[in-house]
Specification:
mainly alpha; DNA-binding transcription factor activity; 127 residues; RNA_pol_sigma70_r2; RNA polymerase sigma-70 factor (ECF subfamily); RNA_pol_sigma_r2; 6 helices
Length: 127
């Protein structure tokens, strides 16, 4: 169990996670699941698929916590999202309505540099 009055760094949480500390896993989940969900939803626009992808990533993180070599948790999780989304697309699991919906989305904000990098990475992975 983690001390609720102490803020743990990613490195501390990773170290505790490698010791199969459920409190560290819960803290990582609480800190990162929303950003992972948003990132995957931005690409897929399919709530059920996104929930499955995020759950798969966290399940894998817990099951392999002792073997993983993670330096920066957010970078690891963002990469995992990109690969899971790419695999989802490669597997042909996208519904045809996705493309229709995507064409109709009004994108009020101009994508930033990070968005372009992630899109290029995703294109590379899919090919």
């Amino acid at each position: 169990m983690l001390n609720n009055h102490h803020t743990y760094s990613d490195l501390e949480l990773i170290s505790l996670l490698k010791k199969v500390n459920i409190g560290a896993f819960d803290a990582i989940y609480s800190q990162h699941w929303a950003a992972m969900y948003q990132s995957a939803f931005y690409l897929l626009r399919d709530e059920d698929a996104v929930m499955d992808i995020v759950q798969d990533i966290f399940t894998g993180l817990w099951e392999k916590c002792q073997q993983l070599d993670i330096q920066v948790m957010l970078a690891y999780l963002r990469t995992a999202v990109r690969f899971k989304v790419a695999n989802y697309i490669k597997a042909g699991k996208i519904h045809s309505s996705f493309y229709t919906e995507l064409a109709g989305i009004d994108m009020p904000n101009t994508p930033g540099p990070q968005d372009f990098l992630e899109l290029n990475d995703l294109k590379t992975i899919i090919q």
